[in-house]
Design goal:
Elements lengths: L2 H25 L7 H25 L4 H16 L4 H19 L3
Helix pairs in contact: 2-3, 3-4
């Protein structure tokens, strides 16, 4: 890509990213006391992480069946309050076993 084309893209991206992070700090001077708004702000990181992770799960494997098996194992382990490493390894093992059974590997 030509630098003259790339530079405006980079500047627009920098301004948008910076403004998204700075505007709440500038506009909200005091502590937010509304319980409803606080509950929304509390769950935003989990929602964004889920929205980025769930679609990637279905495209990371060779088969949708093994992806679903890994997702189910991850949900069960997370529901039982296992650590992040245990959940990730369990989901990977479920995908490996499922693809091995299906003969994809």
């Amino acid at each position: 890509m030509n630098f003259k084309v790339f530079l405006p893209y980079l500047l627009v991206m920098a301004v948008v990213t910076y403004s998204i992070r700075v505007l709440p700090l500038v506009l909200v001077k005091q502590k937010i006391k509304n319980r409803f708004f606080n509950s929304i702000l509390y769950y935003i990181p989990y929602t964004v992480l889920s929205a980025m992770t769930i679609p990637a799960i279905f495209y990371a494997t060779n088969s949708i069946i093994s992806a679903i098996a890994g997702l189910i194992v991850a949900i069960v382990l997370a529901y039982n309050r296992k650590s992040l490493i245990v959940v990730a390894v369990g989901a990977c093992c479920a995908v490996l076993v499922t693809e091995g059974i299906m003969g994809i590997i």
